[in-house]
Write a structure and sequence with these properties.
single chain, about 160 residues, alpha+beta, 2 domains, five-stranded antiparallel sheet, about 15% helix
């Protein structure tokens, strides 16, 4: 105990994700682990160990087999997705529950590959796919504000995923 740990750049491995909150499944020999208010998966070492931080301070280092028998992930509730938006004309646009279509995913950040007058006038710093409407068209939000609607062909001609 007491040394410095170096983790790799990997964000996911062995079905575990950096930032994932954990709880003790089987008691540890360390009281700090058993009494922890928060256990967080913080990384992987180059020699195959898993690093878990205790209450934002010290960390434990374990093999995957130990990690899987002694800890389990805490399922975090995902925030509810916004389903209604406003277009440039002030009309309400309601998206479907669909989260992916033809390789286009809700949450996908975009960059402009072909300028249009609407894109140029609004000069957005952030473009994001926020959903699809009943006819299959794609809804793109500008700077967390208004949305524009595109056919799949129009979308593919104007945007590239980041």
């Amino acid at each position: 105990m007491g040394g410095k740990l170096q983790v790799t750049d990997e964000l996911e491995k062995f079905g575990l994700k950096v930032g994932q909150k954990l709880k003790v499944k089987e008691k540890s020999t360390f009281d700090e682990v058993n009494n922890a208010k928060e256990l967080t998966m913080v990384g992987f070492t180059s020699d195959g160990f898993i690093v878990t931080q205790i209450d934002g301070g010290m960390a434990t280092v374990n093999y995957i087999s130990f990690q899987k028998t002694h800890y389990e992930p805490i399922e975090e509730e995902k925030p509810e997705r916004q389903m209604e938006f406003e277009d440039l004309g002030g009309s309400k646009i309601k998206v479907t529950n669909e989260t992916e279509k033809s390789g286009i995913k809700v949450g996908q950040k975009l960059k402009v590959k072909a300028q249009t007058s609407l894109i140029k006038v609004n000069n957005p710093k952030k473009l994001e796919v926020v959903g699809f409407i009943d006819n299959g068209n794609i809804v793109v939000q500008l700077d967390e504000g208004v949305v524009l609607i595109y056919t799949e062909d129009g979308y593919k001609n104007l945007f590239d995923p980041i």
